[in-house]
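Reviewer comment 2.1 asked that we show a complete input and output for one of the modelled complexes. We chose the NAP case, as it is the one discussed in the main text.
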Amino acid sequence: MNHIKLNNGVTIPQLGLGTFRAKEKEAYEAVLHALKQGYRHIDTASIYGNEEEVGQAIKDAGIPREEIFVTTKLFNSDQGYLSAKKAFMKSLDRLDLEYVDLYLIHWPQTYELSADSWQALEELYLDGYTRAIGVSNFNFHHLEHLFETAEIIPQVNQIESHVYLQNHKLQEFCMKNGIYLEAYAPLASHEIKKLLENETMQKIADKHGKTVPQVAIRYHLERDIIVIPKSVTPKRIDENFDVFDFELSEEETQEINKLNRGRKFFPDPDNI
Ligand SMILES: NC(=O)c1ccc[n+]([C@@H]2O[C@H](COP(=O)([O-])OP(=O)(O)OC[C@H]3O[C@@H](n4cnc5c(N)ncnc54)[C@H](OP(=O)(O)O)[C@@H]3O)[C@@H](O)[C@H]2O)c1
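Response of the prediction step:
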């Protein structure tokens, strides 16, 4: 497993398990299976409604807490200084953990509201409730405004990222500011069929004796992006983790770069 060192020195396993749309028992079983297979990084959010099951699976896996990296997120309706702190405590309670590893603002709201929420996150971080803090779905202008009042630069920006939406410029901007990108929907999420049917991806996958999802995950890893593919299917959870025994050639990377269409499958952060 590759690890990335964030701007505060905390390390994060570069590949984790996503849990969006994984409900209750499904989420519990997926997380338990993933942890048993070697995953050490789990991504959830208060809005996913599965924090309790994620927390229970972490407990039942019997792995020391400090070996697992847990992310959760502050939802839009909870943004604001006091409400963010309250929402965080509720998440912690549902997860039944003493701390999380990364707490993210899920979506940008008004600049003022995001700034107030960020102040709460900074304090939660300084008080030791979360080992890292970050944002999600933040574009250039959201980050620039955040920088005006922030005392701590986010460690991570989790954004929609797949071969059809590659975010090269945003990555350059974030890396210049010490912020790692984390790719959500790396398999194109509900549009995964488009990815699975992509001929370029299939050709590259065949060449390596790998699958298209494995190539898509590998592409992100090689770009130094943290990546959190979701699956509740044991065989796919295993498949998505089996990506450390091959490398894309420069030519293959260039071919994948050409698939970029700036195509979003999730809402535009400017219109949420
Ligand atoms: N910050 C945000 O706003 C935000 C937004 C969206 C997602 N996220 C996070 O990012 C994670 C990943 O994004 P996502 O869940 O939207 O999409 P994704 O990981 O790109 O794709 C998930 C879909 O692909 C299927 N799948 C997974 N591995 C497969 C494989 N090897 N072969 C064939 N199909 C496969 C899954 O099916 P099964 O589960 O049925 O196997 C599911 O339908 C989320 O779970 C969540 O933790 C964050």
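Strands lie at 3-5, 11-13, 17-18, 41-43, 69-74, 102-105, 133-136, 156-160, 180-184, 226-227. We note this here for comparison with the apo prediction described in Section 3.2.
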